[in-house]
Design a protein that fits this description.
about 10% helix; six-stranded antiparallel β-sheet; about 400 residues
Length: about 400
């Protein structure tokens, strides 16, 4: 006890700022792992932080979003009952290093390396955190071991293809845990016997789960041609992982038929611990109001569709997760995309590939969410009715976010 008090006193002496954060739940539903994000713009050079609630330390995370070696945001997760209000104390320090907490998310980029015979089958260790390819690179899909960056929470696992499709492909779990460090998206037979998950979706040229694309007036277009394309990991956790796709010099036609002009686009994916949904934020370097874009979900073979006609579109279906069906069992998944109505130009009729939305923005950004479930989950959903009901309840929470107030 004496040592704990001494440590807390030392931290107080180093604190550059102390303030209170009040988190209020506006709906009568208990919510867990609710993200609370605080901008640090007005707090100077923050090097470490401590978050407590009623004297108990709460795991937190500092993130440098623009990679300039200065932390931009503080994040922690709140568990809060319906209509409850909680207060947290935040202490920011101008010395030290970020506190370490158990990882609840994971992200990885690794170069393909077939020559290292000492590695276990399907395992690679040429770890990187950023890669940029010229637009005329021949086949960027095979540069990385699992064909692009991957990330996960305890409930999900996603990889994003490093090519013009930039498609989200999915990993289905049986148990609620982190697995991609061990499987690297390619589960071997021994791991399968131990209950590890595996790839559960065939995506082809489709949206997969909510890929962001152009729109030529009739159909989605891939993100090409570009001058360069980049994938990078911004944050590894422990509470959220952030990855970005950067497409420079993307040429696409305007909605009014004018000559294509080049834009730069950054797509940021944020995965929070305890969440099966993923935030998608798209940023442009100029006004893009004359452009049309698209997103949506793959029309899984024989799938049942759901739409609330207000930006939530989902499906439930079963298909093989790869073109080679000899090594795979059929997988059942539920997929969904949730787009704010202000961005929607039209909800396109389903075709053999996709359930699509056409999008526009009058600003320089677009934000939406994607989520999915695998019927393999012991903790998830196992019918279309269960999945669609969950989505309706999920939407209510998205539409009524917690209220966060900061007071010095």
């Amino acid at each position: 006890m004496f040592l704990l008090c001494l440590t807390l006193l030392s931290n107080m002496l180093l604190a550059s700022r102390t303030f209170t954060v009040t988190v209020s739940n506006p709906i009568n539903v208990e919510r867990n792992d609710v993200p609370v994000v605080i901008s640090l713009k007005s707090y100077g050079d923050v090097r470490s932080a401590l978050v407590t609630q009623n004297g108990k330390e709460i795991a937190c995370q500092l993130d440098d979003l623009d990679q300039d070696e200065v932390f931009d945001e503080l994040c922690f997760l709140a568990d809060i009952y319906g209509k409850e209000k909680k207060q947290y104390t935040v202490e920011l320090f101008d010395e030290g290093e970020p506190r370490q907490y158990p990882a609840r998310v994971f992200a990885e980029m690794v170069m393909a390396n077939t020559k290292d015979k000492t590695l276990k089958k399907n395992q690679q260790n040429n770890f990187i955190e950023s890669i940029t390819a010229r637009g005329d690179a021949a086949y960027t899909y095979n540069l990385q071991h699992h064909h692009g960056v991957d990330f996960e929470s305890e409930l999900n696992g996603i990889r994003i293809y490093f090519d013009a499709r930039q498609t989200l492909d999915l990993y289905g779990k049986y148990q609620k845990r982190l697995e991609l460090k061990e499987t690297q998206f390619y589960t071997d037979e021994e791991q399968k016997k131990q209950g590890y998950g595996d790839d559960v979706l065939w995506v082809g040229q489709t949206f997969g789960l909510g890929a962001f694309r152009g729109w030529d007036g009739q159909k989605p277009t891939h993100v090409e041609p570009v001058k360069t394309r980049t994938q990078r990991i911004i944050s590894y956790g422990p509470l959220r992982t952030i990855v970005e796709l950067v497409d420079c010099g993307w040429q696409l036609p305007t909605a009014n038929g004018q000559k294509p002009t080049a834009i730069n686009m950054t797509i940021r994916y944020t995965q929070y611990a305890g969440h099966r949904d993923t935030d998608v934020d798209v940023f442009f370097n100029k006004n893009v109001s004359d452009y049309r874009f698209s997103t949506g979900i793959i029309n899984v073979k024989g799938s049942e569709e759901f739409s609330d006609k207000k930006g939530l579109r989902a499906c439930w279906g079963t298909d093989y997760p790869a073109a080679d069906t000899t090594k795979w069992k059929r997988e059942t998944v539920g997929l969904a995309v949730l787009v704010p109505v202000k961005y929607i130009v039209s909800e396109e009729p389903a075709n053999k590939d996709n359930y699509a939305y056409v999008l526009k923005t009058d600003t320089q950004s677009i934000s939406y969410k994607v989520t999915y479930t695998s019927a393999n989950e012991t903790f998830g959903y196992h019918s279309a009715n269960e999945w669609f009901y969950y989505l309706k309840e999920w939407r209510k929470e998205v539409d009524k976010p917690v209220v966060v107030k900061v007071a010095d």
